[in-house]
Amino acid sequence: MTKFKFLYLLPVLGMLACSEDPLSENPEIESLPQENEFNQNLTEVAYPDTKGNVSSVYYAGQKLPVAEINGKYVYQGDILLPKSKATTHYENLIFEEGQAPATKSTGRTSGMWEDNTVYYSIDSNLPNKDRVYDAIKHWETNTPLTFIERSGESSYIYFTPGSGCSSYIGQIGGRQEITLASGCSTGNTIHEIGHAVGLWHEQSRMDRDNHITINYENVQRGMEYNFETYAEGGYDGEEFTSNLDFGSIMMYSSYSFSSNGQPTIVKKNGSTFSVQRSELSNGDIRGIESMYPSIEQKPEKPEEPSTPNYINGEYYTLYGLTVLRYYDSWYYGSRFGWRKIKLVNGNWYWA
Ligand SMILES: [Zn+2]
């Protein structure tokens, strides 16, 4: 039996190494460091004064580094992951026969709001509600999404005060909060709504290393996890623009989480860049239009996904799990040896 040696290849979901940028010694600095990025409203954070313990959880088939703060999993500063749907064990991604999966996959292309309609409600204690109304108006003017004040619907966004700006990703089911501290602007609210309808951060794209370099030496200690790309979990969603969009309202600034006033993110030529928090970029709008085609444009019958041709003896990472194709079946190498599993509607089950 030679199969067991392949166990070493299992979860290949670790951190991406940061690469040295040969040009960083001679950067063409385009703009000066900002004193405090949060005050500049260009980096949204859920809990500005708290770091929390960093650990990894599996969520929607991806391994994500999170900080645990106030009993919440915080990802990349301002993204909250629902605790009931995140698991600390890889094998929890495989269910027993008949067991309803506890997780609903969410990513750039799922956790969608049906019929392009987002329900919401505003906490009566939220100061300056106009930033919510203005942000919603901006979304409705520029995208096919409609926002309707909730009247009994079970899944909805709840805009409420908090210590920072934060949101969940996509529709998670039930009431999901967007927190807005008094310092969160209309632009920050547009950004947080972007998360709630399914957008991740632009600098975390899978291909971002082709466009930018992360200067980890300038990142605040304990904040490095904010600069991870999405793990190659096989469920990373889609990128809707061919290039990294520096104008995206979902893009971090050059000085996000800087410890020393030096840039944490630079372009490949070493230069810094400016970001904005006033409007959705053309790339943001194109992405949203791909995720939420206007009702008239929707094809009458959804296209059947073509079945990929899996090769026996090869490993694949599918729906969060690294699995072996063998005699036209799937196998998972657990600590008890190889076990046959099967894929049903995007969830793995013991076969
Ligand atoms: Zn964000």
Q: What would you say this structure looks like, in words?
A:
With 351 residues, this protein is mostly beta strands. Helix content is 10%, strand content 23%. Strands 5-17-16-15-14-13 form a six-stranded mixed beta sheet, with no helix packed on it. A five-stranded mixed beta sheet has the order 1-2-3-4-9. Residues 1-39, 101-109 and 231-236 have low confidence and may be disordered. It contains three helices and 17 strands. The chain has a single domain (27-291), classed as Collagenase (Catalytic Domain), CATH 3.40.390. The structure holds zinc ion. The site of zinc ion (ZN) has 6 residues, from helix 2.
Helix fraction, binned, reads: under 10%
Strand order of the largest sheet: 5-17-16-15-14-13
Shape: globular
- How many DSSP helices? 3
CATH third-level topology: Collagenase (Catalytic Domain)
What is the H-and-E element order?
EEEEEEHEEEEHEEHEEEEE
Question: By CATH's scheme, which homologous superfamily applies?
Answer: Collagenase (Catalytic Domain)
Task: Indicate the proportion of strand residues.
Answer: 15-25%
Average of the residue pLDDT scores: 78
Give unreliable regions as ranges: 1-39, 101-109, 231-236
The count of DSSP E runs of length 2 or more, i.e. the number of strands, is 17
Computed structural class? mainly beta
- Biggest sheet, in brief? 6 strands, mixed
Number of domains: 1
Rg, Cα atoms, Å: 21 Å
